[in-house]
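Help! Submission page says 'invalid entity' but I think these are all valid:
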Amino acid sequence: MRLRSVIILCMAMLVASATALAMGDSPDIALTPTLPPTHTATPPAIAVTPTPMPDPQLFIPEVIESYPHDADSFIQGLVWNGETFYESAGLYGESDLREVDPITGEVLRQVDLAPEFFAEGLTLVDDKLIQITWQEHIAFVYDAETFEQVGTFEYDTDGWGLCYDGEVLYMSDGTPNLYTRDPQTFELLSQVPLTFQGELVPNLNELECVDGKVWGNIWQTDVIVRIEPSTGEIDGLVDARNLLSAEEVAGLAGGAVLNGIAYDPEAEVFYITGKKWPRLFKVTFTEFER
Ligand SMILES: [Ca+2]
């Protein structure tokens, strides 16, 4: 597929997700920024030409290997700890925190959440795991060694994705915002609008912090984006279609969309899977030839 086609496809997917929101899927989410009042004064004589947006880098995933994944897991967060995966699984009555064997996909241990909690993003901060919830405004803190719950945080927004860059937490909530939080107190530190080519982008879901950038997948698409976290600008796009076979796609349950990104900094590989996907993929992102 040619470069222009890939850009158009990815933009169409992003626009489709924004349109779905506008049609009422999530009526609480604002799509447009608050604009200043309209001025009636004489417009300035000099026309201002907007600065052209730089083209994003385009990537495709190259699959190194794939492994079995629990097709009952409505995965919301994926973390690589150097030896195994930590995974957060969602849905009311089915949410849990689990440790997963990377080769067999076997669940090695699991802590179930109470049925009133819908688990979402997950990240590892030193020896603690932080797991956020969708609309319950509570994050659970676990000792990663024992899986014992050792604390909670409260917050005001929805909870979608979470990652830790070694200094701060980044969090998504389905709105076109990327939030920065304190890893020790969960206090909101700052937020930036999430944009692509100047347009607001909602539905940023699972996150992964990698080398100063934030990677995340856009819910209900096969697009993974790379974000400059200081500005919220999307500066890279991954066209992650076609990881599953046609037969696997045909057998997917409703809502079984791409979700879940982890990174192994030693091997410099990403891991990608999806909600109720039967496989998890070890990939590298290769830049598309221009
Ligand atoms: Ca992740």
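Support: the input was valid. A stray whitespace character was the problem, and the output above is from the cleaned input. Residues 77-79, 163, 206-208, 261-262 surround calcium ion (CB under 6 Å).
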